[in-house]
Write a structure and sequence with these properties.
This protein is mainly alpha-helical. It contains 12 helices and 6 strands.
């Protein structure tokens, strides 16, 4: 929904109300910023380029293990996480256990802080500084709306902060959190699981041990399927990244949270993703090493069985409590996958 400044003519009881000029809300401004491809250097990439609605607000380039920036052939080392439901991650904290934040490694404490990053990242939108971003906004058709909401363009720091706040506010709207999956319909008694889906949920919360980290909601809290914490799953490195990034040293290891905190005790740990719309967002994990949901469940089920998987990229601090050798059959793996596919928004009951 693109909202433009326009004259609003309203008809009430057969009479014409005096026209008034619509004023963008901050969230509506955020929508314009989110989808604007003119704000990168060069032009061509928006927030939505790597967080597209039809792809579960993740990267639509599902054949790539990691995301490509506005510069052709320039890649990062991580798969774009979904921006949907991201508002439910708490502010990053070191108290009572490390949890929350945005990005795979939690380095941005809030959605607002996250929104500031991609514009200046050379492997994403590639702007050299905040002033260049604000200058690009000043040249857009919605510049007057931006100034009305955020103040003068001359105060670059304040304008950049307001830009990020607007994008973050847009990411809290119902577009990003519709809760319209089959799972939600079943909870509301408007649909029923198939036998396989029901078996998958039972395994998900039982012997599959999935819900120990991908927790369901309690009380009035919605089911988000994440504990917002960080774990090292012992994932193997992804050779495809080294093909895309020949500049990386052969011994490159993504240390995740450990690098953010400069603490080896947390090397290899990444945030537990939520599972909403998970069927729409392959490939999986921070490095895109697992291509399908079946691969994901099979990895959790068999990680510690010799010869099944390559060695972990980061072998220290590995989580061994809820994965490794679960003893699930292939049919049980399929059932868990079938359940996770019920978490896709847009379900219409037959």
């Amino acid at each position: 929904m693109k909202i433009k400044t326009q004259v609003l003519v309203m008809l009430l009881a057969g009479s014409v109300v005096q026209p008034a000029f619509a004023v963008l809300t901050k969230a509506q401004l955020g929508e314009k910023l989110y989808f604007d491809t003119s704000l990168s250097e060069p032009a061509g990439q928006a927030c939505a380029s790597c967080h597209e609605p039809s792809a579960g607000f993740a990267d639509p380039d599902q054949h790539l293990p990691v995301s490509e920036g506005v510069i052709p052939g320039r890649f990062g080392t991580r798969n774009s996480p979904s921006a949907a439901y991201a508002l439910f991650y708490p502010t990053f904290t070191l108290k009572s256990g490390i949890l929350g934040g945005q990005f795979w490694d939690g380095r941005a404490a809030t959605l607002t802080e996250q929104a500031k990053g991609p514009f200046l990242n050379p492997v994403e939108m590639n702007n050299p500084d905040q002033a260049s971003v604000i200058a690009k906004i000043q040249a857009t058709p919605y510049a007057a709306d931006f100034a009305t909401v955020c103040g003068p363009f001359t105060n670059v720091a304040a304008a950049y902060q307001c830009m990020a706040e607007a994008i973050a506010l847009f990411e809290t709207t119902t577009m990003f959190r519709p809760f319209t999956s089959k799972y939600d319909a079943v909870k509301a008694n408007r649909a029923s699981f198939t036998a396989q889906e029901a078996a998958g949920l039972k395994l998900f919360t039982g012997s599959g041990k999935c819900s120990n980290c991908h927790v369901l909601g309690t009380g009035k809290n919605p089911d988000l399927f994440t504990d917002s914490k960080f774990q090292n799953l012992g994932l193997p490195r992804n050779p495809e990244i080294f093909q895309l990034r020949p500049d990386l040293p052969a011994d490159f290891r993504d240390l995740g949270l450990g690098a953010v905190l400069n603490d080896p005790k947390h090397n290899g740990k990444f945030k537990t993703t939520h599972l909403r719309n998970i069927a729409l967002t392959p490939p999986y994990m921070h490095n895109g090493v697992l291509k399908t949901l079946k691969d994901v469940v099979h990895f959790y089920n068999t990680r510690d069985i010799p010869g099944v998987w390559p060695a972990p990229e980061v072998s220290e601090n590995m989580d061994g409590a809820f994965l490794g050798n679960l003893g699930l059959t292939s049919a049980e793996e399929d059932a868990i996958v079938a359940f996770m596919q019920t978490l896709t928004d847009g379900y219409v009951a037959p």
